[in-house]
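Deviation from plan, reported transparently: magnesium ion complex.
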Amino acid sequence: MPNVVVVGLQWGDEGKGKIIDFLTQKADVVVRFQGGNNAGHTIVVDGQKYILHLIPSGILHPDKVCVIGNGVVVDPAVLLKEITELQAKGVKLSPKRFLLSEKAHVIMPYHKAIDLAREAKKGKGKIGTTGRGIGPCYEDKATRTGFRMIELLDKEHFLEKLKQKVEEKNFYLTQYLGAEGVSFEAIAETYLKYAEFLRPYIKNVARFLWEAKEAKKNILFEGAQGTQLDIDHGTYPYVTSSNTVASSVCSGAGFPITAITSVVGVCKAYTTRVGGGPFPTELSDEIGQHLQQKGGEFGSTTGRPRRCGWLDLVVVREAVRLNGVRKLAITKLDVLSGIKELKICVGYECNGEKIDFLPASIKDIEKCNPIYETFAGWDGELAGKTELPSEAQRYLEFISDFVGVPVALISTGPGREEIICAEEVF
Ligand code: GDP
Ligand code: IMO
Ligand code: MG
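Because the crystal trials were delayed, the predicted structure below was used instead.
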């Protein structure tokens, strides 16, 4: 009966995959509703690491159904690889328990080529995208010239439309971006093969979810990226190309807003960001390096080092409000163990004024100097502990009081069991 949305409250990589894997125990269906394979969600079970880019992080629970909604942009090559790799690892993945929306948009080779060539052309001012073609695919969706999954299954239509698309995109790639064009024949051959592989999974997902809701199943929605990467609410233009906030479940999965019962916000105990863009609490000193090393802060998708800094509660509180978060999941608290003094940002000084929100202008954000509260640190490893040191409890209480919602889950390590459940979510 409960239908719960899980979203990231920072700049992505908060540990959503781990939290989804934990919550899937009580769910029947797990759904991705936006983003694409720019996401990298890590789950560690019995010491084995799984990084999922498209398939929901509930897939390691054998009896649960996993669904990709219409709001996701899907690279068929990546999906095919993910399905076959999971099957090779013994994960039972059949059309009975994995569904792909017929309305999801398809990432084409020219989307990736354009993404990469645009970034190269921008040089220093680049966004630092994942290079997976996400922006250009959403762009075609918005201009009503993209391919939906269902169109891949209609060979004649697909080839006719592809011809026009390749002509248009090759003009842009070669004449404007100075990059190489793509081959119609090569795309036609590979994509028609992908279509046959994916055909059994391609379904009417909104209808499936409606029926699951009517049957009183528990549905879990898995956000990708984070609130500060939302195309409307994030640090634009240093954002991704989809709405990452919880409400996009409605458009991205075809799920009714009135049926959503709760929203869980995932917040890392400090802050990280991968790619370009402003980051007021970024640390370029040895503490930043310590967080990067101890936290293993290297991108799950691109392997790029993640920028690290103190927890910014201005950013998190804004995300709690935008998403309507009811409960928090705090992750990676263990990474802070051993740091003598911890800081949390509670406001900024910007243009000589004290403010308690992130300005809309990038130039203004760059002028924001964080105002910090200082906290005593703690020693000793937290992984597997059920009782936290008083200093760690104080740190969590401050977060909860500042943003106005309780902490339900505390993750103390990457493994499935390394979690404290203070309050039930389902
Ligand atoms: P996501 O994109 O939000 O799912 O997060 P990622 O998987 O990209 O990044 C989170 C990283 O932190 C992964 O390597 C996880 O295995 C790891 N992780 C998650 N929770 C914890 C935790 O509580 N402690 C530690 N040390 N690592 C964690
Ligand atoms: P998960 O789901 C962290 C960032 C990129 C770049 C910007 C735009 O694992 O939390 P894009 O390829 O989307 O056009 O890149 O967004 N980005 C992420 N950062 N975690 C992610 O996903 C991200 N997905 C995109 O680094 O700054
Ligand atoms: Mg990630």
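The first helix runs from residue 16 to 23. We consider this an acceptable substitute for the interim report.
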